[in-house]
Amino acid sequence: MRILRASDYRSMPWKNGGGTTTEIVVSPAGAGLDDFDWRISMARVEVGGPFSVFAGIDRTLSILEGEGMRLSIAGREPIDLTHTSEPLFFPADAATEASLPAGPITDLNVMTRRGRTHHAVQRMSLSEPLDLITEAGTTVVFCQDGSIQVGESSTLALGVRDTLWLTNAGQTLSLRPLPHAVLFLIAIQND
Fold first, then answer.
1. Each residue of 66-106: pLDDT tens digit?
2. What is the pTM of this model?
3. Residue-number span of the structural domain to which 174 is assigned
């Protein structure tokens, strides 16, 4: 079990100047965009436009901040994604265009390499304790809002945009909102 603090994440501007990416965690450690098995990041999107294409990658997007984004994926009917929407899963190698009808947003981006790993993302609003039983080889808890006490120790807590990274299936852990929290549960499994 590791806690990753938001203050320690690494941020980098996009080459096209349309935003910035903040890497939360990547596997294997130190992997780049061409050789990761999985990657979790946040992006500050300042302007609409085409998404970068990532061959052989599946992704899930969720809005953390801002009014939302309209996505056109592979020529299908546009999808409006807001901070109350369910996380949106789609292939990162499909042509995708985004517009920002109400201004800039910040999103949470989970990507896994097809054939090596797969993932599921769930948004949860907690006002009562949750006993989390990990089923995947890797489970990541990302605290979007509020704070969460981890386990029975009053000193171990996640603040806004902190991350808990668990690397074994079959763990049981108590998550206690203080007094309310919004979090993302991210399950990553090897194929």
1. 999 999 999 899 999 999 999 999 999 999 999 999 999 99
2. 0.94
3. 118-190
